[in-house]
Amino acid sequence: MALYYRSSILSSMIVGGPIINVGSMIRGVRYGLKEYGSQGILVFLVVLGFFLQGCGLVFDAVELVQPLARDEMSAICSRGQLRVGISVEPFRPFVFPAVYTDEGVRVTGLDVELIREVADALTTYCGGQNPIVPTLHLTRFRDLFIEMNEGHLDLFVSSVGGNIPGARPVGLWFSIPYFHNGGIGAMIRTPEVAEKIRTKFQKQPGSPDTLAATQAGLAGLTVAAQRGRTSHLYAEANLKNIRLLLCDSLPAAIEMRDPPIDVIVSTHAILDYVTKHVWPDWRLLTRNDGTPLVLTQESFSIVTVEEHRRLQWFLNNLLYRLEESGRLEHMRRRWLEEDYAPTRRAATEGLPFEVSKVPEHYDQGQCRFATGR
Amino acid sequence: MKSRVLLFISLSLVFFLTWSSIGWSQAPREEAETTAQHLATLLNVGRLIVDRNQTLINDPRKGDKGFTPEVFEHEVVNEFIRQTHMDLKHLPSHLPSLAKEVLPLLLQSSKEVVADAQLVINQRGIGYKNFIPATFGSQAARKFSNRSHVKIKQTALNPRNLKNTPDAYEETVLKRLATQPASNTPVTDWIDNETTLRALTPIYYSKDCLDCHGNPKGILDISGYPREGAQEGDLAGAISIQIPVESR
User: Fold this and answer.
1) Yes or no, beta carbons of A105 and B119 under 8 Å apart
2) Which residue of A53, A335, B42, B94 is most buried, as measured by CB atoms within 10 A?
3) Residue A5: its pLDDT value, please?
4) Do B125 and A252 touch (CB under 8 A)?
């Protein structure tokens, strides 16, 4: 019987089960008490101690044969999949809304092309025998950070700015930028708002102060921003005298009729695209000389967790190489400047995604006034 | 006398064998041709239902469109009854066994395509979603073909999707159809030593198709492809079906 307990502990170690099997220990103590009294317990504990002492050696041996705790890069290589989070709310031209193609449901955009680059580079890193397949998890923007922290993702890419105060949650790491001109801009529907801002700029003698003119120009207006995005953080911190409306997505802000929205603040590059291609009723807010009004600079990064040091270096080195070779610049021009139909690009180069992971019956959400201002 | 009896028996045997072999080969051929015709009709009905619901599917103001796989199935079943007088839910007993096997499979594959597209269809704030008869048909045909020895494909002389490029047989038939007056009759041929049925059912452009496939020729349509400059009634392509009879 004692031999049975010894072997059960030993086998649990060998097969990788729990080293200290509490059930076995209790049964062992009971058996020792019943059969041999206190002497039995002593013998059992001595035997147990003997085996526990050897646990480290057993672990070392197993680690040598097959590492138990692999680093994140080895895990990606052995899995053959790169788990990438991407926002279900569209950020055109970085992430376009999912469309149906001859190949099934696909998502495309600059961020998706970047994901392809990362997956291709990982394929090379992993030996090139089997391709590393990017598995896209379309998730609400606010949930990307949670999914990442809970270990469901290797990384996420969704035009996320990392250099705005408050934009970096604890535990997450932001790569070097893949997009530099992601400043926060604004769009309007009625010319009166533009006129109000221009008047404030005209009142400034000498070099203009964008923040002061914007604060004065937008005072009393209803300004919408997407909840959790950097434009929200900017508005909270800098635009005190506005009625701030927080929307779940940009389309939700566009749809909002009551109260009517005067200004939408968001990433300038996104607003530039949507005012030209999606919502022609809206136009970019400009300075008096006609150049777009950009409220602050922002650069976009790939996000992963703080502990994934090897993946972080891999991403930074890759982005540096892509920048150095002109590939990133080509990608940026391709999506921001060229005339193209996103549907066709989705059909030819879009990526599929895990439909089961998408929030059911996703809609663009709602807008609510910010509280506690 | 004995030799006469022997001769009679021999002739009877030859006659029986010849007759039976004709009978055995004739039945699968007819069965395959009937099946091909019904399959093409069913895929076309699915395309038609998607087309009828296009305005709803592309409505940016609505989230949940209610165009569920079950609603799609209901409309397909009704339209199929209207066109063929056959209920897909209770297929008639006289229908070839092959048709009884593959028609429910195509209906199921078509429903799955609509199910897969729910996320795209139910997006609010997004208008054109590219869930159109052509993309529906491509996926339904592919899903079905992956599960059956019968193969279905949408094809055209100048397909937008290169996976729909016609093979040599399809190209020959399509070129012939393009010069002939419109007809819904499928073109059927037995190839590979009479062991494989090839059937092409032509599809013609309707008015609705011309938004994307009509004029001005060469100008990009909403999905980014150059318009073909087609006229109503022109040949758009065909539903191509292959049924190998000996592999069953």
Assistant:
1) yes
2) B42
3) 39
4) yes
pTM here? 0.77
pLDDT tens figures, B113-146: 999 999 899 988 888 999 999 999 999 999 999 9
Whether the per-residue pLDDT at A53 is higher than 60: the answer is no
Instruction: Read off the tokens for B160.
Output: 């937008």
Q: Considering only alpha carbons, which residue of chain B is nearest residue A138?
A: B119
Per-position b or e across A17-55, b if 16+ CB within 10 A of its CB: eeeebeebeeebeebbeeeeeeebbeebeebbeeeeeee
* Closest CB from A97, A102, A358 relative to B139: A102
Q: Which helix (H) or strand (E) holds B181?
A: none
| Calpha distance B215→B231 (Å, rounded) | 8
Cβ separation A345–B224 shorter than 8 A: yes
Mean pLDDT, range A332-341, rounded to an integer: 94
Residue with tokens 């938004």: B211
3-state secondary structure of A20: coil
Q: Within 13 Å and on the Cβ side, how many CA atoms surround A76? A: 31
User: Using CA atoms, how far apart are residues A223 and A266, in angstroms rounded to an integer?
Assistant: 11
The terminus-to-terminus CA distance of chain B in angstroms comes to 46
Q: Rounded to an integer, what is the distance from CA A237 to the centroid of its chain?
A: 23
> Count of A–B CB contacts within 8 Å?
83
Residues in B touching A105 (Cβ below 8 Å): 116-117, 119-120
Nearest neighbour of B130 by CB, restricted to A90, A99, A340: A99
The shortest C-alpha distance from B212 to chain A (Å) reads 13
| Inter-residue long-range contacts of B161-166, CB under 8 Å, 24+ positions, other chains counted | B161/A102, B161/A347, B161/B134, B163/A102, B163/B138, B164/A102, B164/B138, B164/B237, B166/B240
Beta pairing, strands B196-204 & B187-191 = antiparallel
Cα distances from B60 to residues A55, A257, A278, B125, B132, in angstroms, run 63, 15, 12, 4, 15
Q: CB–CB of B19/B26 below 8 Å?
A: no
Classified as helix, coil or strand, A91 is strand
Which residue in B58, B65, B119, B132 has the most chain A C-beta atoms within 10 A of its own C-beta, making it the best mutation to test that interface? B119
Among A145, A210, A199, A156, CA closest to A178: A156
The residue-averaged pLDDT of A89-111 equals 92
For B132, which residue in chain A has the nearest alpha carbon? A100
Query: Would you tell me how many other CB atoms lie within 10 Å of the CB of residue A311?
Result: 24
Q: Using a CB-CB distance cutoff of 8 angstroms, which residues of chain B are in contact with residue A347? A: 130, 161, 223
